[in-house]
Amino acid sequence: MNLRHSWIIAAKDLKGIRHRRTILYTIVVLPLALSLLFGYVIQYAFSSAPDIKASDLAGLLDAFGFWFVIIAAIVPSPIASYSIVGEKVEKSLEPLLATPVTDGDILLGKSLAAFIPTILATYAGAAIYMTLVDRTLYSKVGYLYYPNWEMVVILLLLTPLTCLLSIELNVITSSRVTDVRSASQLGGIIFAPFMGLFIAGEIGVITLDAVTLLIISAFFAVLVIAMFFLSTRTFQREEILTKWK
Amino acid sequence: MIEAEGLTRKFGDLVAVDGVTFRVDEGEVFGFLGPNGAGKTTTVRMLCCLISKTSGEARIADYEVGNHADSPKIRKMIGLVPDNVGLYESMSAYDNLDFYGKLYDRTESQRKESNEYFLKMLGLWEKRDTAAGTFSKGMKQKLAVARALIHNPQVLFLDEPTANLDPESAKMVRDFVLELRKEKKTIFLNTHNLDEAQRICDRIAILNTRLMAIGTAEELERTVKGRQTVIQLAQVSDAVVRALERLPISNLSYAGGRATFDVADPEKENPPVVRAIVEAGGEIQTVTVQGSTLEEAYLKLVRSQG
User: Is the N or the C terminus of chain B less surrounded, counting Cβ atoms within 10 Å?
Assistant: First the structure.
């Protein structure tokens, strides 16, 4: 594998994303809007009930934290769809495959193009959210809630793994769809299991503490590896040119 | 430069290319002629190491098609213009070329030089910063050819380069291919345009899943029927008829003051006929040699398999 080739492909796609308004909105608006909303909700909770303790809000704060995993599942979908299916629609994959780059170089490049903005956007959103929450808590109860172990696991393990899982799912679905919108919608189904986890946390079926999050991360790591083999098998030049719709 | 022997590709039960054998010499413009679905694109894809072969052998220069280690080396020495140009429509003409230059590991100065050279050569330099998506079909096709040449490949594969182009754009692309011929590039041209093949190819192969014939345009024309000499006379007199009957010529016929007969070697066989007519008092107005057209040869070969 040639990392330089992968980076050239990723840089080309990243440049292309800058001209796609809908993708830019997804990358920028979703994490920013949720961070501000969650931060405002916490601020409102303290202002409307001044006697409330941070420990009373722990469940809510953990649930808000988990939303950054959901963001990492949603954001890569339109990018990966544009990057792979867009190229398929433009019929630009064949000349690309005729160059000395390997299938792995292309797949890595495409994955980087979706991974980098997602991680940057998620981390930026999380930073804003944690700053807003800590500012409120520090002024009201005199201590900082973030960073905590839950958020460390979420940001350093779950978010990258979820992002990879979403990209891999998009690569696999790309072979079966003929337009970017369908690919994006199909890739978006990854949103569902994360919402399931979130709801399970909210209704008390599971507790989204650091240990549970670590267990979920381990499960995701296995899934990422399995999906990696599936996606590399799908993304082979012979498959692309003879079997992709 | 390119050799194929018994090259075959099957898709399930469907045989797309069936035991094709040919050789393309260095610096040759080789036309691959055939109807839609004849296996032309599949052959090119196999030779470009984009898809695998089911059986048979193929080589490009010293490298074996289908050999995992040789595939990147082959792809480095070839350029491909697929039937769909596949440009990045939102990227400028310059950026399209520059992206491919980077993938072929060209240095920045090499890329700058070759991007400028091709864009100027193709008359696209003024539009270098314009998005490729706004270009006409002819301009896109030319840009796709330039993209395939950006790394100075030894072999260029062109898959239907003038299909769906208006006559002016098609001529533009053909002229460009003729320019490349001067640079001694080996060019493999897939086409179903007979006129185009005849005008720019040194040799032509006719494919319809199987290879039907291979040779120069003239050689292929002769595969249908030999050439004919047509002598236009002021008048076909009895003396002329008697004189010609004594000569060893075949399929002699007369119509409208014309004497027509088959000829294998006109330079050798026509002078005695002309002499015999003149000696018999005949008045010759014109002597022409007619052959069957490439179109006739093509249709006969393709239909024979039909």
Answer: C
Beta-carbon contacts of A43 under 8 Å, excluding residues fewer than 6 positions away, are A132, A136
Global ipTM: 0.85
Residues 6+ apart with CB under 8 A from A245: A175, A176, A177, A178
Maximum pairwise Cα distance, chain A: 67
Distance CA B207, CA B195 (A): 16
In terms of Cα–Cα distance, which of B148, B152, B97 is closest to B127? B97
Please tell me the distance from the alpha carbon of residue B156 to that of residue B96, in angstroms, as a whole number.
18
Please name the member of A5, A90, A95 whose beta carbon is closest to the beta carbon of B89: A90
DSSP B257: T
Of B89, B91, B103, which is closest to A99 when you measure between CB atoms? B103
Number of residues that this document lists for chain B: 306
Residue B79 with chain A: CB contacts under 8 Å: 98
Nearest to A72 by CA among A172, A157, A175: A157
Interface test with A, best of B65, B77, B89, B103 (most A CBs within 10 A): B103
Q: How far apart are CA A135 and CA A151, in angstroms?
A: 17
Residue type (1 letter), B8:
T
Q: Which amino acid is at B170?
A: A
Q: Which domains does chain B have, with CATH numbers?
A: 2-221 (3.40.50.300), 226-290 (3.30.70.100)
Q: How far apart are CA B18 and CA B127, in angstroms?
A: 44
**A182 is written with which tokens?**
């369908």
Show residues of chain B in contact with A95, CB under 8 Å. Answer: 80-82, 85-86, 100, 144, 147-148
A67/A41 Cα distance (integer angstroms):
14
**Rounded Cα–Cα distance for residues A93 and A108 (Å):** 15
The pTM is what?
Answer: 0.81
Determine the residue type at B117.
Y
Cα–Cα distance, B86 to A241 (Å, whole number): 13
Give, for A204, the enclosing helix (H) or strand (E). none
Tens of pLDDT along chain A (245 residues)? Answer: 789 999 999 999 999 888 888 888 889 999 999 999 999 998 888 888 877 777 778 888 888 999 999 999 999 988 888 888 888 888 898 999 999 999 889 999 999 999 999 999 999 999 999 999 999 988 887 888 889 999 999 999 999 999 999 998 888 887 777 777 777 777 777 778 888 888 888 888 888 889 999 999 999 999 999 988 888 888 888 888 887 76
**What Rg value do the Cα atoms of chain A yield, rounded?**
20
Structure tokens at B192: 């179903």
Give the closest residue to B92 by CA, choosing from B49, B56, B54, B143.
B143
In the block, which residue shows the tokens 């940057």? A120
Q: Copy the structure tokens of residue B285.
A: 């107005």
Contact A12 B90 (CB under 8 A): no
User: Burial level of B46, CB count in 10 A (0-12/13-18/19+)?
Assistant: buried
**Which tokens is B250 given?**
């075949």
